[in-house]
Design brief:
The chain is built from three helices and 16 strands. The chain is mainly beta and 266 residues long. It is globular. The structure holds zinc ion.
Length: 266
């Protein structure tokens, strides 16, 4: 799987974190309310996650990277969620985030919206991920449940993952989320306007301690057949975000590309 480096994050207490987010977000959004709340039951609508919360031994894993996709895709770069869970010393973790599919499994390039309860002991993994791909027929976007067609827990190229024990707890909640507005748009990307509500899985870090991290990565799914990689909102006057976040204690950098660049990080 490549080399793994790790870093202990500074974890501020939640009221302090809420205040910092409130001040920062207010610079970008008209109305912002950040508070420390009980995590909603994520097994319920609209989330339908396999676990109740996103707390307990929270970690971030940044696996692979954009240099494995651009300029040329490294199709040999294939990873496995259960192996990642062991690598971050949290077997059985609930892992969500944004990544790319395994070319070995799908034979194509597609967005992976990860939501997996990793295997633990003799308990098999529960894969609730979604795949968003371009339809070969109409050129539109198609969202599918991963487990409807595939049985593995693999992914390829890169992923930005948030892992926890999936326990209930108190994440700071905020009504909007920070955006990376870099307009470095790759021409091969296809953009679709999508309808709300979208359930977004954001993983972000406030600072790169020198691991060539992707600072923000958000994939979204819905229960109405739309999903993919989040770029920006198209209705800035009316858009509303409701977010539940929890700070990570540790960060793991797995299989960092040796040759790097800054293209395509949006
Ligand atoms: Zn993405």
């Amino acid at each position: 799987m490549g080399e793994t480096e790790s870093f202990a994050c500074h974890v501020p207490d939640l009221p302090e974190l809420a205040e910092v987010l409130q001040i920062g977000l207010k610079k970008n959004y008209a109305d912002v309310q950040v508070s420390v709340v009980e995590c909603p039951d994520l097994t319920q609508e609209p989330f339908r996650f396999p676990v109740k919360g996103i707390c307990g031994k929270a970690r971030i894993a940044d696996v692979g990277g954009v240099p494995y996709l651009v300029p040329l895709a490294r199709l040999d770069k294939i990873y496995n969620i259960n192996a990642v869970a062991k690598e971050i010393e949290l077997p059985g973790a609930f892992i969500l985030g944004a990544g790319a599919v395994s070319h070995r499994t799908l034979g194509e390039n597609a967005e992976l919206i990860l939501s997996v309860q990793a295997a633990y002991g003799d308990k098999a993994a529960v894969n609730g991920s979604y795949v968003a791909r371009i339809s070969p027929a109409g050129g539109g976007c198609v969202l599918e449940k991963y487990s409807d067609r595939y049985t593995d827990c693999d992914f390829g190229l890169l992923s930005n993952l948030y892992a926890s024990r999936g326990e209930p707890g108190k994440p700071p909640e905020f009504s909007t989320c920070p955006l990376n507005t870099d307009e470095d748009v790759n021409l091969w990307l296809k953009f679709f306007e999508m309808r709300a509500p979208l359930i977004c899985q954001s993983v972000f870090v406030s600072r790169d301690p020198g691991f060539d991290l992707r600072l923000e990565h958000t994939h979204c799914f819905s229960h109405h057949g739309e999903g993919g990689h989040y770029h920006t909102d198209t209705t800035p006057e009316t858009v509303r975000y409701l977010g539940y976040f929890h700070p990570a204690e540790l960060l793991y950098r797995i299989d960092r590309p040796k040759e790097t660049h800054t293209v395509g990080r949006d």
